[in-house]
């Protein structure tokens, strides 16, 4: 407690308004304020304001538009990242559901676009690729020919072409035994991918991976296609990670 500056006969009880840990600090500053003409409390206010600004961080002084722009820049590949054409994947399985090959393509696009800035790829818009193919009279299958691939790359000013296929697969069923009376079904699928240099026609990356779906009770596996898509996603994830590692490795630096 200390005397009121305007009414010396009135006593403030600061302890009734503050936590015990705060009482001594405030009272000492208040008393010092009384004998320094108010300068202490002004100084204290500036210190507290500075501390609050530090707690809030620099984001408090950045507009929402600037924050959004920074977030977008952090997820975009660097300007010098190679320009990549992604061709639709082919499906060599007996199950010709179009979502199977599309699952592989979608997974690669997501993985490569979300890789760290400077380590990713600038993936060309598929509509632009399709329009150029039509102008040149090429088909997605004929671009497998190196001469057509190089011409496509020249027209689109692209550096690399990624192509792939869902090659082989198998549906597995577990054996029913006395100890395991429930029958389970799952899929294992192999995916192959190739990356070609569109300046030289050289194959810079070629690999394959096998993905396996979760095991589900057979009575829940209404369609094998869903199991196949799940296995394709696992294999595509593994291949995309291989490709990104190859891009940053010493041997794969050309990517």
Q: What attributes characterize this protein structure?
A:
single chain; 255 residues; alpha/beta; Rossmann fold; 2 domains; 7-stranded mixed sheet; two-stranded antiparallel ribbon; 7 helices; 9 strands; 20% strand; elongated
CATH hierarchy: architecture of the largest domain? 3-Layer(aba) Sandwich
The CATH homologous superfamily of the largest domain is named ABC-type transport auxiliary lipoprotein component
Order of helical and strand elements: EEHHHEEHEHHEEEEH
By DSSP (H or I, 4+ residues per run), the number of helices equals 7
- Give the uncertain stretches in residue-range form: 8-33, 67-75
The CATH class of the largest domain turns out to be: Alpha Beta
Query: What is the overall pLDDT average?
Result: 75
> Biggest sheet: strands, sense, closure?
7 strands, mixed
Structural class: alpha/beta
Distance between the termini: 73 Å
Our count of domains comes out at 2
Question: Strand content of the residues, in percent?
Answer: 15-25%
CATH topology of the largest domain: Rossmann fold
Q: How would you sum up the global shape? A: elongated
**β-strand number:** 9
Output the radius of gyration: 32 Å
Helix content: 40-55%
């Amino acid at each position: 407690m200390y005397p009121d500056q305007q009414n010396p006969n009135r006593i403030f009880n600061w302890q009734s308004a503050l936590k015990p840990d705060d009482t001594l600090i405030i009272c000492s500053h208040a008393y010092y304020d009384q004998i320094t003409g108010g300068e202490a409390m002004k100084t204290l206010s500036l210190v507290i304001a500075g501390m609050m600004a530090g707690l809030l961080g620099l984001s408090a002084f950045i507009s929402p538009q600037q924050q959004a722009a920074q977030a977008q820049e952090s997820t975009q590949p660097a300007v010098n990242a190679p320009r990549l054409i992604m061709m639709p994947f082919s499906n060599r399985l007996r199950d010709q559901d179009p979502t199977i090959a599309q699952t592989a393509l979608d997974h690669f696009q997501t993985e490569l676009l979300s890789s760290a800035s400077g380590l990713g790829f600038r993936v060309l818009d598929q509509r632009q690729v399709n329009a150029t193919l039509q102008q040149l009279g090429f088909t997605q299958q004929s671009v497998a020919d190196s001469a057509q691939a190089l011409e496509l790359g020249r027209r689109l000013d692209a550096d690399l072409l990624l192509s792939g296929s869902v090659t082989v697969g198998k549906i597995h069923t577990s054996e029913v035994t006395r100890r395991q009376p429930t029958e389970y079904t799952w899929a294992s699928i192999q995916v192959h991918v190739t990356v070609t240099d569109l300046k030289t026609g050289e194959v810079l990356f070629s690999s394959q991976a096998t993905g396996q779906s979760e095991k589900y009770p057979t009575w829940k596996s209404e369609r094998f296609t869903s199991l196949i898509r799940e296995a394709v996603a696992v294999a595509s994830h593994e291949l995309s990670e291989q490709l990104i590692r190859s891009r940053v490795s010493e041997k794969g630096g050309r990517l």
